[in-house]
Amino acid sequence: MKKIVVVGGGAGGLELVTKLGQSFGKKNQAEVVLIDRSQTHIWKPLLHEVATGSLDINSDGLNYRAHAAKHHYQFQLGTLTDVNPEKKALTLDSLSDDMGHIVLPERTIEYDILVMAVGSISNDFGTLGVSDYCYFLDSHKQAERFQQALLNQFLRVHQEGQDAKLKLAIVGGGATGVELSAELFHVADMLKAYGMPEMSGKRVHVQLIEAGPRILPALPEHIASLATKELIRLGVTVSQGTRVTRAFDGGFETAEEDKIEADLMIWAAGVKAPDFVAKIEGFETTRNNQVLVKGTLQTTNFENIYVIGDCCACQQADGSFVPPRAQSAHQMASLVFNNIKASFLSEPLKEYVYKDYGSLVNLSRYSTVGSLMGNLMGGSMFIEGRIARFVYVSLYRLHLIAIHGWFKATVIMAAQKIGKVVKPKLKLH
Asked: What residue stretches are annotated with the FAD/NAD(P)-binding domain (predicted)?
């Protein structure tokens, strides 16, 4: 029996392993294993809501082990440190508890087919002080860590009186930085109902810092312009063409040697695949550690290793690379599933063609803007307001359907609606 190992339970990895389990694991045609360093899955585009407390990972997250039991695959908790393509084996780091006691030693897992879906992490470009003083939002644990610090700062500002303000600086004008900026004002306004009657968005100062000429560089310019106007209307200071050269305890320093003071600093500028990926012998990688693949999403040197999601460097016909988005991870997962299935039947493999369905940016309850259709009709259709918000929410619902099926996904969505009525609208602990 062949063993298929998927490393990384993000949007693409979890959808793929669900399909593999239902198709091969259920029929005992293959052993399917998912490896992830966390016990819980959360859709990555929602991490900014976890960071502000708008979303509770304990109620809205998915437990891998429980999901594995229902979808006929195995789950192993661990952090991948190395892959040996020649021996068809990978190494997982030892696992320790909070007291430093080793729970599991370093392990070696063999495979017949490997799918790398390890995602991406923030790229600080070696900027001095960033790793010491900034918060990152690469995982739900990092998001929860920031959420606790944010609650403490809100408490401080409330106790200090009406003249006190909370200063936050966010580096990176991509979707994460933009959506987080808006969500922070929304959360500050909601705290009025939870024992902080003097708190409001007016007591929050958010500065969004982008090194490029405009925020949202991956989206059409008119969408970025509209988002900029909306952020400024909320009270965000949008600093474009501003390059940060150093982070220190209490703020950032720019290339012009200006100081930007902040109580909390978030780094959301640029992404790269984890550093260990570039060290794997036989993998061809880009400067951002992404693994170069053929059109079939197999690595250039190993036909039994596939790569999907943010860690995948797939070149398109025009020479550009597929952008690291949830929709591309979803499409890649579908293709790799079909190609693994085809390989079992000795049928030819298909090549991946990225389909751009458009992009959306959700500015909390204030606005949602974006474009639909993308290259499907040779152009794009601009949308905003309620329609855009509906489409944005629908993307998450499609993800739930992919990993749970229609029936359970519908039940989960209904339960989430009920939960919003009976539970606090904010995570307050």
From this structure: 2-333
Residue ranges in 22-162 assigned as alpha helix (H): 47-52, 57-60, 64-71, 130-133, 140-160
Report which of 151, 146, 153, 200 is spatially closest to residue 176, judged by C-alpha positions. 146
| CA gap 46, 142 in Å, rounded | 13
Does this model's pTM top 0.70? My answer is yes
Lowest mean pLDDT among 107-121, 221-235, 380-394: 380-394
Q: Which helix (H) or strand (E) holds 109?
A: strand 107-110
Q: What is the pLDDT of residues 301-324, one digit of tens each?
A: 999 999 999 999 999 999 999 988
E strands, 222-380, are 237-240, 244-248, 251-254, 259-261, 264-267, 271-272, 291-292, 305-307, 312-313, 358-363, 367-372
What number of helices (H) and strands (E) belong to the chain? 11, 26
Answer for the pair 291, 275: CB distance below 8 angstroms, yes or no. Answer: no
State the pLDDT at residue 75: 97
